[in-house]
Specification:
The complex is a heterodimer of chains A (96) and B (469). Chain A has 96 residues and is mostly helical. The radius of gyration of chain A is 22 Å and the shape is flat. Helices cover 30% and strands 4% of the residues of chain A. Chain B has 469 residues and is of the alpha/beta class. In chain B, helix 7 links the parallel strand 9 (250-254) and strand 10 (283-287). Chains A and B meet through helix 1 and helix 2 of A and helix 8, helix 9, helix 10, helix 11 and helix 13 of B.
Chain lengths: 96, 469
């Protein structure tokens, strides 16, 4: 398993940026330590031999159930709950 | 008197069918009592002042039902216990809620929960913390704490719609002396559920007695074209499995669930229950579930990984918390999310983002999914020989809020050691009360194979007649 000691300020900045969170310096330090503590405990998984074991993305077998590809009436508008819409579109912040 | 639990639902529904029913007067009375419960124990995030009974003649017609706040209710604010969804009023019902309303259930309110379900004690809710009716200084358990609180404290007929990812029905049921039914993954549609872990979330029930849970499951279960992970297996009437005989029923008792970290008094109650079930015709035998020690680590890695992606959609654009749009998308989304998410939500998003990061993904996320495979296989092996597994529901009695405050995050996660394995395996569980220990409730968790809720109802119904010293 990965060396958890690599969890430093630079990594926390990277995680916060990906997760779209503005962490205070205090939060960043606190979460970094907690992350180390949690991952230290989670190293127990190293004991499990998972060679040739398939990952279970779902706990039960899920099968496709097909339906006719027909449009159906929708009873509500996705725009009902937003304050940021214009001409039947969501209006978001600038991308570029 | 709490702890002397008797269902009012069956009698109530029977009475309604045989007498003239003053619907408006009854609802007014229930809402008034709900407001008093709110003053005493804070179980609700919102009480539905415009509650009404639809579905005249339906099998739940006239029955008050509370709904956990991460299940969407048309016209009634739904926040999942988070500030980031403050003000969100869904324009639609979750399928489970729609089914309940169609047969006459009355939605009386939305119950308090840990933010997005992130907790074992219902203490991370942004809108108030429910207090345990047995002792107001103690937790109701989480994350469906409000649902359990109403169920334990209400003196009117009522059933709660709850939800579990890793034990969020079993924990509050055990801490409040109520019954908690967590169905098989896919047994109840998740359409309209505010997911945090889409491969583990299940809508279930908290109720006063096993009959009530079986009744509600009968209403809610079944395939839903709006949820591609719902099972095509037809729904059935689970109340027909209520019984008073367990002749031929085989119960497995896994050693790992009775370790030293489990309060000895709780374990003894379960062993006492098993001895009494033997008198009713069941047999029980010690078994080993050796993968149990890996369940918490595997569970949390999967849960936070899925949470970090599922919560990406909350960014102040389509629903919930909004702000004036300024700056670029990065600055705006980060600002809203930082204001809207609570401490535990941020912690789990950071942890999940880490676990899925390139370079770490195989070591953490995929490793956890493979361990899940081994856990499922181990359960399946036991169910080749046994009908149900019996364990304590929780390793501790309901803790004081002051004790919870002193716990580090990893200590809180470790309290889930008895519930994470069955939840990540997607097998159904039923938590039934085993009386009180020192004035506080304890519970026994029954676990069955996928889609064998019938076995849980059968054994659970007999448990209700057991006596405690």
């Amino acid at each position: 398993m990965v060396d958890y000691t690599r969890i430093d300020g630079a990594l926390m900045d990277r995680l916060a940026k990906i997760a779209k969170l503005n962490l205070t310096e205090e939060e960043s330090v606190s979460y970094a330590q907690q992350l180390k503590d949690i991952l230290e405990v989670f190293k127990v998984l190293d004991e499990v031999d998972t060679k040739d074991v398939r990952p279970s993305f779902q706990p039960t077998k899920i099968e496709n159930i097909w339906r006719e590809d027909l449009a159906e009436a929708h009873e509500w508008s996705p725009l009902e709950s937003t304050r940021h819409s214009e001409n039947l579109y969501f209006k978001g912040p600038k991308i570029v | 008197m709490f702890g002397l639990i008797k269902s009012l639902v069956k009698d109530h529904l029977y009475t309604l069918k045989s007498t003239k029913f003053d619907t408006e007067g009854f609802i007014e009375d229930v809402l008034a009592k709900s407001r008093r419960l709110q003053e005493q124990y804070s179980p609700f995030i919102a009480i539905n002042d415009s509650a009404n009974a639809e579905g005249a003649g339906g099998m739940l017609y006239g029955l008050p039902v509370s709904v956990k706040d991460n299940i969407c209710t048309r016209g009634l604010q739904t926040t999942a216990g988070s500030r980031i969804l403050e003000g969100y009023v869904p324009p639609f019902d979750a399928t489970a809620v729609a089914k309940v309303r169609q047969v006459g259930g009355i939605v009386i309110g939305k119950t308090a929960m840990d933010e997005f379900g992130f907790g074992t004690f219902a203490t991370t809710c942004a809108y108030g913390v429910p207090k345990n009716p047995f002792d107001k200084d103690r937790s109701c358990g989480g994350s469906s704490g409000g649902a359990a609180c109403v169920t334990a404290a209400a003196d009117f007929p009522h059933i709660a719609l709850a939800q579990s990812t890793g034990g969020s029905i079993t924990a509050p049921a055990a801490f409040t002396g109520t019954v908690g039914l967590t169905p098989t993954y896919g047994r109840v549609s998740r359409y309209g559920l505010i997911d945090f872990s889409n491969s583990m979330d299940k809508i279930g029930v908290i109720s006063r007695c096993v009959y009530d849970s079986a009744l509600m499951l009968s209403v809610m279960s079944g395939y839903d074209p709006l949820d591609s992970t719902s099972s095509a297996m037809p729904s059935q009437d689970y109340t027909k499995y209520m019984t008073d005989s367990l002749v031929g029923v085989r119960i497995a008792v896994p050693r790992e669930y009775f370790s030293d970290v489990v309060d000895r008094r709780i374990s003894e109650r379960v062993m006492d229950a098993l001895a009494q079930l033997e008198d009713c015709g069941a047999t029980y035998e010690s078994v080993s579930l050796a993968t149990t020690k890996y369940a918490i680590a595997a569970y949390y890695l999967i849960a936070v990984s899925e949470a970090s992606t599922n919560l990406a959609k909350y960014c102040g654009l389509r629903y919930g918390l909004h702000d004036s749009i300024d700056g670029n998308f990065d600055a705006y989304f980060s600002k809203v999310r930082s204001e809207g998410f609570g401490e535990e939500a941020k912690r789990r998003i950071i942890l999940g983002t880490f676990a899925r990061l390139a370079g770490f993904r195989d070591a953490y996320y995929l490793k956890a999914l493979k361990v899940r495979t081994k856990i499922i296989e181990e359960f399946k092996e036991v169910f080749r020989k046994f009908d149900v597994i019996a364990t304590p529901s929780m390793p501790i009695l309901p803790p004081r809020f002051s004790e919870i405050e002193r716990m580090a995050p990893i200590e809180k996660y470790n309290v889930d050691l008895l519930t994470t394995a069955p939840n990540m395996a997607g097998v159904p569980t039923l938590s039934v009360p085993t009386g009180t220990v020192g004035g506080l409730p304890s519970g026994m968790q029954l676990i069955a194979d996928h889609f064998r809720e019938d076995a849980l109802v059968k054994v659970g119904s007999v448990c209700e007649g057991l006596k405690w010293k």
